[in-house]
Automatic annotation (TrEMBL):
A molecular function GO annotation: oxidoreductase activity
Coiled-coil zones: none
Keywords in alphabetical order: FAD, Flavoprotein, Oxidoreductase
Record has Flavoprotein as a keyword: yes
UniProt name for this protein: FAD-dependent tricarballylate dehydrogenase TcuA
Domain FAD-dependent oxidoreductase 2 FAD-binding: 3-429
The keyword Oxidoreductase is assigned to this record: yes
UniProt xrefs under SUPFAM superfamilies: FAD/NAD(P)-binding domain (SSF51905), Succinate dehydrogenase/fumarate reductase flavoprotein, catalytic domain (SSF56425)
């Protein structure tokens, strides 16, 4: 019997386990993956979005609560719980010292990191280093860790956690934290959520998974069957336009195509379909996966010319290169005439001011739909480059409804000893959209809270049991 059972092994789960242990609880982590793939999607992360009222170590200038909130409000379109969102924002301002205590180190951002030196603190060594630091700290503190242990059932009675099950093995506890991710790796669930479109396609069949193959949503389904309260839209997710040649799983950040705002994007029919310069890329990169998912064949092509080379983080795969635009269209297997009509119309619409990719500049289009609001420059300087992109799902937003204590609810009533943290409850804050680093902010905030609450609940239950037998 453990005081706290933590289901999952990524950032949120580890924050929960460490906080519970610091509060004096005995803790067991049940991680679905083998040790070499531990950490869930967190191993692919790079940074944490942090509120701060002045310069702080690796963060420059200031990023006050209201600006952070407005950024979140804009990308979610208001589909967010303000109380929980502001709690996450405030928690993000005070977690880094605790993270350092557990071995996490920070560094100034490198070039090509989406202009977020003011808003985001980068992990030295990336997410893998963060995960390894947390596991090292957990081992030093005496937290029990079991790998290759995918939880496939939970014993719950009247909303109260009794035990977690892995096959025929049973792990009892006085409280639990569910930090086991979303359902993005369950292809059938994705198909069910997205359904069939008007072209007779099943869009989810063409989705790639940027993160772990172990986020199958098994525990989320167990909780749904148990009657837990859920929230969110199952089609909403952190969904990025990534190189169409990416692996099915674990491609991570290096598969992302970051030149969208520097050129144009066309679909399989060689037509533009959205404003490539709507806002800064950190606030819009996770919008493009969903946009591509709505296009024929769930594929699109990011097109740039020589003027844009060196202005974005180079992806892991080399783009298709051509000396002329018709040659590029042919290489991408696009209709050359339609492609040239699209590019020529775009070029003719560009109203050039002073190009500056670091600000919302005055280079825009006029008399064309969709418009390009910023960074609009004619695509006219060879060589030309094209990147085929597909939707890359990082994590899903449908999950468990929670409150500011990370409590899980059954028919509106809070469980006395069950808590959720990370992707499984991120949809409370992220109804749609994304802004760089906020997922780690959500996981860290709710993870730390869930661990503290679970330890307190376990202590209360133990004391009650002791009193009953006295």
């Amino acid at each position: 019997m453990w005081d706290v059972i933590v289901v999952g092994g990524g950032n949120a789960a580890l924050c929960s386990a460490l906080m519970a242990r610091e509060a004096g609880a005995s803790v067991l982590i049940l991680e679905a993956s083998p040790k070499e793939w531990r950490g869930g999607n967190s191993q692919h992360t790079r940074n944490l979005r942090c509120m701060h009222d002045g310069p702080q170590d690796v963060l420059v200038d200031s990023y006050p609560e209201e600006e952070y909130w407005q950024d979140l409000l804009k990308v979610t379109g208001g589909i967010t719980n303000e109380k929980l969102a502001r709690m996450v924002i405030r928690e993000s301002s005070s977690c880094r010292d605790w993270m350092r205590k557990h071995g996490v180190r920070f560094q100034a951002p490198l070039s090509g990191t989406l202009h977020v030196a003011r808003t985001n603190a980068f992990f030295m060594g990336g997410g893998k280093a963060l995960i390894n630091a947390y596991y090292h700290s957990a081992e030093k503190l005496g937290i029990d860790i079991l790998y290759d242990s995918p939880v496939d059932d939970l014993e719950i009675k009247d909303g109260k956690f009794i035990a977690a099950k892995v096959g025929d093995k049973r792990y009892p506890g006085n409280a639990c934290v569910l930090g086991c991710g979303g359902f993005e790796s369950d292809r059938e669930w994705l198909r069910e959520a997205w359904g069939q479109n008007e072209r007779g396609e099943w869009p989810a069949d063409n989705f790639l998974i940027r993160g772990t193959r172990y986020n199958m949503g098994v525990v989320l389904k167990v909780m749904m069957r148990a009657g837990a309260d859920t929230m969110g839209d199952p089609t909403q997710a952190h969904c990025v336009a990534i190189d169409a040649r990416s692996p099915l799983y674990d491609g991570g950040i290096c598969t992302r195509i970051d030149c969208v705002s520097l050129g144009i994007v066309v679909n399989r029919e060689a037509k533009r379909f959205y404003d490539e310069g709507e806002d800064f890329w950190p606030k819009r990169y996770a919008l493009w996966g969903r946009l591509v998912a709505l296009q024929p064949g769930q594929i699109a092509y990011s097109i740039i010319d020589a003027k844009s080379v060196g202005r974005f983080m180079p992806p892991v795969f080399t783009g298709v290169q051509a000396d002329t635009l018709p040659e590029l269209a042919a290489k991408l297997e696009l209709d050359v005439d339609t492609f040239m009509e699209t590019v020529n119309a775009f070029n003719a619409s560009c109203r050039q001011g002073t190009f500056d990719h670091n600000i919302q500049d005055d280079c825009y289009t006029e008399g064309i739909t969709p418009a390009k609001t910023h960074w609009a420059r004619p695509i006219d300087t060879g060589p030309f480059f094209g990147y085929a992109v597909r939707p890359g799902v990082t994590f899903t937003y449908f999950g468990l409804a929670t409150d500011e204590k990370a409590s899980i609810f059954f028919d509106g009533k809070a469980s006395p000893n069950m808590y959720a943290a990370g992707e499984i409850n991120a949809g409370n804050v992220l109804g749609k959209g994304y802004t760089a680093g906020v997922g780690m902010s959500i996981g860290t905030a709710f993870g730390r809270i869930a661990g503290t609450q679970a330890a307190a609940a376990a202590k209360k239950i133990k004391e009650g049991a002791q009193h009953a037998t006295a």
